[in-house]
Amino acid sequence: xxxxxxxxxxxxxxxxxxTLEFIKPTPIQAKAIPQLLANPDADFIGLxxxxxxxxxAFGLPLLESIDLDKDYIQVLILxxxxxxxxxxxxxxxxxxxxxxxxxxxxxxxxxxxSNQIRAxxxxxxxxxxxxxxxxxxxxxxAVDLGQVRLLVLDEADEMxxxxxxxxxxxxxxxxxxxxxxxxxxxxxxxxIQKI
Length: 195
Fold this sequence. Notes:
Largest sheet: 6 strands, parallel
Shape: globular
Radius of gyration: 16 Å
Number of strands: 6
Strand order of the largest sheet: 1-6-5-2-4-3
Number of helices: 9
Strand content: 5-15%
Order of helices and strands: HHEHEHEHEHEHHEH
Structural class: alpha/beta
Distance between the termini: 31 Å
């Protein structure tokens, strides 16, 4: 595939990507985006090294699938670190310029939880989070994952290496049983296959 338009993305999103100087999809984007657009409710595993454009590979299709009429969290993206969470949220904010009314929120440890609780009270459709902070917010009843229809695990192998397996299991139990799981990882260890 030589262009994002050929992948099946909407014209407003492709125009926004052109403005952002995203011209040619990377290999993971060219393979993942058409599949995720065609089957947004199906589970998906994308294997690619860090720095190959995974955020756009899952971020662009998930933005296309958001229902702006619904004011609850539809998509949850888990990342292992504060830095990656912030990077994902920043890139999604750039991509979503074409979709007015779409709200994202990022939560992570090491920042004031009171500010994050306030941010979650606004109309949020996409939540980016680190597992530990998310579970803390769930325990405080500041966030409800019951209507999440898509869960993205980015750098899944890193999350497991950092000891987040129990947290991920706990989060999965709190999401809707029919939620789709999109898993992006650089490697495929046995624990990821179990997830």
